[in-house]
Amino acid sequence: MLKDTFGKAGLELCVQEDFAESGSAYGTLLKIYGYIKKADLVVQLIGSHQSQKVPKAVCNEVLRVLPDFRRWLAQKGLLSALQDGDIGYLDFEGFASLYLRKELVLIRFGSGAQSDYEPRLRKLGRHVEAKCDKLTELLPRVQAQLAEIKIIDRASAQHTERKVLRVLNALWMFAIAVCFGVVFLIQLDLSGALQTMDPPQVLRQLAYLLAVSGAAVLFQSLIMTDTLSFGFRLEIAIRNWFVGLLIATLCAYAAFKTMALAETLNTSWTTLITISILLTVISFWFKPPQNKGVGVWLLSFLLNVAFCILVLVLWANLARFPIELFWSFVTLGFAILIRSTWQDNKELELEIEHGTSDLSEGVTARNSQFFWVARQTVMDARRQEDLGSDFPRY
Fold first, then answer.
1. Residue 141 contacts residue 132 (beta carbons within 8 Å)
2. What is the 8-class DSSP label of residue 88?
3. CB < 8 Å & 24+ apart, contacts of 176-184
4. In which region does residue 85 sit, left (phi positive, over 0), alpha (psi from -120 to 50) or beta (all else)?
5. Is 103 strand, coil or helix?
6. Distance separating alpha carbons of residues 263 and 266, to the nearest angstrom
7. Are 53 and 86 in contact (CB under 8 A)?
8. How far apart are the two ends of the chain, measured CA to CA in Å?
9. At 44, phi and psi to the nearest 5?
10. Which residues lie closer than 8 Å to 40 by C-beta, 6 or more apart?
């Protein structure tokens, strides 16, 4: 009835019971927090029924995914109450509203009182400033409060947010373009196409790079759970691939340059053996053989020299295949990225399934990030808000 009354007045009202459908207490808190972020006004009715307590483990988990909120609570001297599980859902709503700088209206309903919550409010410099005896009195009070709010310009705030987002996206696009350009130039250099500038060879190398990049982005997007929005999966896949591609390319280029150096040193057997003996003596200096017999020392020394010669010869000869070296590093980077994405997705699905990390003593908490992105950002990108069923389920 109350929601209908507000709806007829053109106001969207959400009450605490609307969040109770979440599969877990963790999901409920995150839904409440997310809704308060978008709200213009938060009204709390202080009644005689004491607020239901939030489980201790849930409080600690929410604090872990909202580190700035945790710091704010610590500054206000309220952190210990949450860590001990000594707050109710009403407390959480009030603290979140004040932290997010939302207009908070505290109304006493009848002769109700909250023995734990109200002293904490006074600690924050707030108190219950109004009273009502009938729910029908709420609408005019809320309308009057909305009229007094000086800065409610949702359209302007959304415009600013979209503008910042466009700038960030433009910077990412520029960074990706620069990354692609650097990788492509190194690829052309290692393939010899940069020296000849033969159009067919240049186009062929470009096609190879685009094909591998497309496959990497596609595989990552398919591996990620479909509960994440497609746009988010695509954005993360593109970003992570080009960061990984740049790292693999720079490693390949550095390896090629050291191979070229090995090739210049490997001009004669005399030089090769001299370098091998020097490397062997250095290795013996740091880790001599356990057996002190002369024969063992000599055999170990000769084996070390032979191993050094083999490594130097292989390293020098690999320098004759620079483009193959490039694609070897890129393939390795591709495999590492796909493996990491699969592992992170597995952890994320466990997080979604169970609703929260198991914070029992002796149990390692799950990742603070997935796909090299902060965990809360990933959670915000989910298509559905309910986070699992029974808390916790292990």
1. yes
2. B
3. 176/238, 176/239, 176/242, 179/242, 179/243, 179/245, 179/246, 180/209, 180/213, 180/242, 182/246, 182/249, 183/209, 183/242, 183/245, 183/246, 183/249, 184/209
4. left
5. strand
6. 5
7. yes
8. 40
9. -115, 125
10. 102, 103, 146, 149, 152, 154
Burial of 148 (0-12, 13-18, 19+ CB in 10 A): exposed
Q: What single letter denotes the amino acid at residue 107? A: I
Structure confidence by residue, pLDDT tens digits, 160-193:
767 887 888 889 899 999 999 999 999 998 888 8
Residue found by looking up tokens 């609408």 in the block:
139
Residue with tokens 């599969």: 23
CA distance 213 to 237: 10
Six-digit token pair at 104? 């908070």
Note the pLDDT of residue 67: 80
* Exposure string over 223-242, b if 16+ CB within 10 A, otherwise e: bbeeebeeebbebbbbbbbb
Statement: residue 393 has pLDDT above 60: no
The pair of three-digit structure tokens given for residue 179, joined into one six-digit string: 């990354």
In order, the DSSP letters of 263-323 are HHHTTSHHHHHHHHHHHHHHHHHHS--S---HHHHHHHHHHHHHHHHHHHHHHHHHTT-HH
Domain-by-domain residue ranges, the chain? 2-152, 156-380
What gap in Å lies between CA 392 and CA 56, rounded to an integer? 11
For residue 391, pLDDT over 70 is answered with: no
133-143, pLDDT tens digit by residue?
887 777 777 77
- Contact predicate 46/114, CB 8 Å: yes
Say if residues 236 and 220 touch (Cβ distance below 8 Å): yes
Q: What is the largest CA-CA distance in the chain?
A: 100
Least confident of 11-15, 53-57, 70-74, 250-254: 11-15
Bridge pairing between strands 369-370 and 130-132: unpaired
Q: Is it the case that residue 84 has pLDDT exceeding 90? A: no
Residue with tokens 């695509």: 234
Going by DSSP bridges, is the β-strand pair 369-370/373-374 parallel, antiparallel, or unpaired? antiparallel
Measure the CA–CA gap between 9 and 153, rounded to whole angstroms.
19
User: Which residues, in sequence order, are CB contacts of 241 under 8 Å at separation 6+?
Assistant: 213, 216, 217, 220, 337
Rg (CA), the chain: 31
Which residue type does 197 have? M
